[in-house]
Each structure stands twice: as structure tokens, then as C-alpha cells.
Design goal:
Number of strands: 16
Strand order of the largest sheet: 1-2-13-16
Shape: globular
Distance between the termini: 40 Å
Largest sheet: 4 strands, parallel
Order of helices and strands: HHEHEEEEEEEEEEEEEEEHHH
Strand content: 15-25%
Structural class: alpha+beta
Number of helices: 6
Radius of gyration: 21 Å
Length: 375
């Protein structure tokens, strides 16, 4: 299936920008390091644009990891980088799969200190079978605040705890995976030791919504990287006419924004403030593009998801470069913004970014006056 997905993405690019030279590198071999190596290989091969739809579930929301750093390094060398926002829902459509917030301590009758979601509610019900990831904002490889992720069944019976020790040289993550989590099961976030931190609870499910208490902020990994162009999805299924601006994002399209607390070296952006008012807020996603289009690989007609939207946006970028090869990433994004159809909330928003990117609008922004200065 993954090979077919890559072929489908290349087909979308070829359909929109038929003269583009196409390269492919898999990110599925060697884990996160293999993905970073694939980005470096495509950069070394001379790629002007790189687009991916690959997401590793253990990628931190609070610090750029090896993949996000490889993408940023590619951008620094002149590449324009696109990635899919993800298909994990958004808070506005009540399809959220994420909870982010400051840890709010509550001691329950058993003497356990746990997070209070509000009004004494300390369990978060899971609606779908899923894998679950807990992150908190310590630097990668240097967490000395110890948090645990507890699982209870629907009747309130304790099932298990993900309770690795974080004592100064560990990643700030706890994971429940490889276990069948049933709808109705309850998640509990516990501080075992250390300081109160802002945390991110992510339920990775094939269906949305996934959590009783949810917030915005599903985008993470390289989708949250500062200069990566992150792409949300709006359906073009069975359309025979252009987008008009009356559309919305797919209800599974992941939302932003992304609050990041550390640079790639683990240096805090706001030392001493690790709460919901700290860190660096990155507006995400950046743009929206079409999904649910027909492609040839079996199982990808229609090809839905932000995995289909990302190559649509990247192909428009390729058309723009064919007209103005000197176009920078910043100029490309500015032109896309000038020609975009504003959807969802007025102006830039956490679901659609600047809106739906259009090929004609983007091209008009850079070619309407030949020889004119770029945006």
C-alpha cells in the first residue's frame, strides 16, 4: 500500500506539472533516521521541491526532531519543502484526537496525583481503538520530570501504566501501544515526580473523534517545523468545477497551531516559562489543497487524505518555479497566499492556513506583469 501511495502522489504531481523531473526516496526504511537520510539524499540529488506524507507517531510536538531538522536543513540549502498536515482531526469539527494543556494537579481518593481536566474530571475517555502517546515539554534526551500514562477500563478498573523513568537523560514520552484499547477505556496523566509541565496527549486512531476532552494542536513532527509548508485537505471528489471559497477542510484534517518550546539543541525559547503562555507559536497548517482525486494505483481511487493534498500544493509550487526559477520559498508562499481562496475562519486560521491554494491565482501573482519584482 505504501508503495502505491508514493506512486499516487507522484501521479498527482505529474498530472499538474507534467514536465517536472520526479525523484523518489522511501522514508520507511530505518525509522526516523532513515527518513532524515532520504531527505538529505533528495536534497543532494538537486531537488527544488520535496514533498512527504510520512509521520512517525513518536515525533515530539515540542521540539524539532531529526526529521524536522533534516527538512529545515534542506530548506536552508534552497529546497521548498511540503508535508501533509495529517488525518487526526480538528477541534472545530469535533473530531479531535489531541489534548494539550498545563498539568493541573489533583489528588484523588486513592492518594494518586493526576491531571484534572476541569471540575475534578481526571480521566479522558477514548472513543476509538488506538495507540496513545503522552509528551511533555522537556528537551529531547534530557527529561528529568517523570510523567506516567495510566489506562483504566470503562468500569474504572486499572489496566496498566506506561511508566518509564525520566531522570535527566531520557525523552519526555510515554506510550501505550500494541494493546487493544477499547472504546470507553479511560486515560489518566500522572506526574510521578518533578515540575508541572505543558503536555500533549495524542490518540492515534483510524477514526475520529478519539477523546472526550480534546483541544486543537494535532499537527506535530515536521508538520510543525517553522519553514515547512504544511498542507491541509479539502475534498475535490466528483467536482467538475473549480473551488469557489465556499469549501471547508475535511473533518479529519489535522489542525494547528504548534507551540514549540525548544530549538534543535534543546535550548528553551522562553527559559523558565514552560506553560501555555511560553514557547514559540508556529501558525499551522500553512495552506490547503485538494484531496479525494482519482489516481491509478489500486486502492487510491479516490485518493483521500492530506497525503493527496500535499502533492497538489507541491505541484503548484513546481509550476511556479517553471515560470520563475529564481522564486524563493518565501516568495512562493506569499504568491500562494495572494492567490488563495479564504475558507473556514476569516483570514489565516488553524484549520486551513491561508486557504485553498489555486494554480491560476498563484501563477497570476508572479506572472501577471512579466519582469515585475517578485512578491
Amino acid at each position: 500500500k505504501r508503495q502505491g501511495e508514493g506512486t499516487a502522489m507522484l501521479e498527482i504531481i505529474n498530472d499538474l506539472a507534467p514536465d517536472a523531473n520526479l525523484l523518489f526516496a522511501t522514508g520507511f526504511v530505518g525509522g526516523a533516521a532513515g527518513m532524515a537520510n532520504a531527505i538529505q539524499s533528495l536534497t543532494a540529488a538537486g531537488s527544488d521541491i520535496i514533498v512527504d506524507d510520512l509521520f512517525f507517531f513518536n515525533q515530539s510536538p515540542f521540539q524539532d526532531d531529526i526529521i524536522a531538522n533534516a527538512a529545515e536543513d534542506a530548506i536552508s540549502s534552497g529546497v521548498t519543502y511540503f508535508t501533509s498536515a495529517g488525518n487526526y482531526g480538528n477541534n472545530n469539527d469535533a473530531t479531535g484526537s489531541v489534548y494539550e494543556g498545563d498539568y493541573n494537579p489533583l489528588t484523588v481518593s486513592s492518594g494518586l496525583e493526576v491531571h484534572d481536566y476541569g471540575g475534578g474530571a481526571w480521566t479522558n475517555q477514548v472513543f476509538q481503538s488506538a495507540n496513545v502517546y503522552l509528551f511533555w515539554n522537556d528537551p529531547l534526551g534530557a527529561s528529568d520530570n517523570d510523567y506516567d500514562l495510566l489506562l483504566y477500563d470503562a468500569a474504572g478498573n486499572f489496566v496498566l501504566a506506561s511508566s518509564d523513568v525520566q531522570d535527566g537523560d531520557d525523552d519526555p514520552i510515554e506510550v501505550i501501544s500494541g494493546l487493544v484499547i477499547l472504546p470507553g477505556d479511560q486515560l489518566v496523566v500522572r506526574r510521578f515526580s518533578g515540575e508541572q509541565r505543558y503536555f500533549h496527549l495524542s490518540v492515534v486512531s483510524k477514526q475520529n473523534p478519539s477523546l472526550n476532552f480534546s483541544t486543537a494542536g494535532a499537527i506535530r513532527g515536521q508538520g510543525g517545523a517553522d519553514r515547512v509548508i504544511t498542507v491541509a485537505a479539502s475534498s475535490a471528489q466528483n467536482r467538475i468545477s473549480p473551488f469557489t471559497g465556499s469549501e471547508s477542510v475535511q473533518n479529519f484534517s489535522s489542525d494547528g497551531n504548534r507551540r514549540v518550546f525548544f530549538d534543535r539543541n534543546g535550548v528553551a525559547y522562553t527559559p523558565g516559562n514552560f506553560s501555555a503562555t511560553g514557547g514559540q507559536v508556529r501558525p499551522k497548517p500553512d495552506v490547503t489543497a485538494a484531496d479525494c482525486v482519482r489516481t491509478e494505483p489500486p486502492g487510491f481511487s479516490p485518493f483521500c487524505g492530506t497525503s493527496a493534498a500535499a502533492p497538489h500544493a507541491a505541484a503548484i509550487g513546481a509550476l511556479m518555479l517553471s515560470a520563475r526559477p529564481e522564486l524563493t520559498r518565501e516568495q512562493m508562499l506569499a504568491a500562494m497566499s495572494a492567490g488563495a481562496l479564504d475558507i473556514e475562519a476569516v483570514g489565516r486560521d488553524r484549520d486551513s492556513g491561508i486557504g485553498i491554494v489555486t494554480a491560476d491565482g498563484s501563477m497570476d501573482a508572479i506572472t501577471s506583469t512579466p519582469g515585475a519584482p517578485l512578491l
